[in-house]
Design a protein that fits this description.
Length: 210
């Protein structure tokens, strides 16, 4: 193998697994985007968050969330089994650390969806994580999406809407910002696909030390 081929081989082997974090306000369409990204990148490990909240219609154990009873959640929290954890709308959420660590060790990229507070914690502790903020096209669109879900009572819905307004400025703390316009979620997914493919081609790469 000549010197040029050795260099090309080194460049090919330079790529390291990455942690991609999808975040944004409740109702911004993160779940739909993650579902689309699963199909576009079947090789990526999609991490699952644990919670004690009730399962919504259509949600599957181990696919959408790990649904734990409060005692089990607190036990795992005490054992430092979560990468990050937070109270979101009155319910505890946590990202199990081992699933991400094992995927990174296998050389797999990881895709993780968390709330804005959780994304900020991850970015602070692991700056090499790539955080993508998904925003609604407008606040009226967000309110419509929250109404359409029909999973919250009016009081909780307006609380989510109010918290979304306070979360929008936090987008500037992250790496990328993507608008998810009404009826245009495919465009948002395509933009995130472009981000992932570009990040894989960076010359300087370092895997997250989770």
């Amino acid at each position: 193998m000549n010197e040029g081929d050795l260099l090309l081989s080194d460049l090919r082997n330079r790529r390291k697994p990455k942690l991609y974090v999808i975040t944004g306000p409740s109702g911004a369409g993160k779940d739909t985007i993650v579902k689309d990204l699963r199909e576009r990148f079947p090789e990526i490990h999609v991490a699952v968050t644990a919670t004690t909240r009730a399962r919504r219609p259509g949600e599957a154990e181990g696919v959408d969330y790990f649904f734990l009873d409060p005692h089990t959640f607190l036990e795992r929290l005490a054992n430092d089994e979560f990468m990050e954890s937070a109270q979101v709308y009155g319910k505890p959420y946590g990202v199990p650390r081992n699933q991400i660590r094992h995927a990174i060790q296998r050389g797999q990229d990881v895709l993780l969806k968390v709330d804005v507070q959780g994304a900020a914690t991850i970015k602070e502790r692991w700056p090499e994580a790539i955080v993508i903020f998904v925003s609604p096209g407008s606040m009226s669109q967000l309110l419509h999406q929250l109404h359409h879900r029909k999973t919250d009572n009016p009081e909780d819905l307006m609380r989510r809407f109010g918290e979304a307004e306070s979360e929008l400025p936090m987008a500037m703390e992250f790496d990328y910002f993507v608008f998810n316009e009404t009826e245009k979620h495919q465009q948002a997914t395509e933009e995130i696909e472009t981000i992932i493919r570009a990040e894989r081609l960076r010359t300087k790469q370092r895997p997250p030390s989770v």
